[in-house]
Design goal:
46% of the residues lie in helices and 18% in strands. It has 189 residues and is of the alpha+beta class. It has one domain: 2-Layer Sandwich (Alpha-Beta Plaits).
Length: 189
Amino acid sequence: MIKLIKISSLLTFAILLNSCISENKELDAAPKNLKEESAKISTKQKYIGSTEESWKHFYETFKGQGKFVMLNLVKYKPMADYTGIEVSNIQKDKTGKETYQYYKNQVEKILEKTKVGSILYYGESQDFLIGPKDEKWDAVILVEYDSIEVFVNFVDSEAYQKIRGHRKASLEDSRLLPASNVNIQEVEK
């Protein structure tokens, strides 16, 4: 029951955060000239990988903190595209969704073998209850890792390096949001 509450709380937090930071904010209360300027410059940037700056900030924030959960929002490409990607076992003529499923299954195997984390939740996404109508995600994934240190070892591992290209080949856009693993009993005190 507590794990279900944690997952529900994380999903609610992610949806609210996403609606607050979306580049496609509702501008109804904004002055007319601001609406016009925003309409002219409104572009939606896509994200597949981290930057050196975001990685460093992530590492410093979670270093020594123990368990954390990574919220993944993903949007699939219609067809997987391996252009410029070196990876074993290319998923030829597969959709982005099929290729991402292959990638997710391989990640699960690595996590099960190494015992450094687990996929808590994977589900297909729907329209926002609260959030921009024009922003869509295909799936939501919550992954718990034992620590930032084991996460770094995981992404640097030979096993992960062999499959990571499938993620890039399958995704049109993504968001990764790490969150502290809050103990619900501590919050209730």
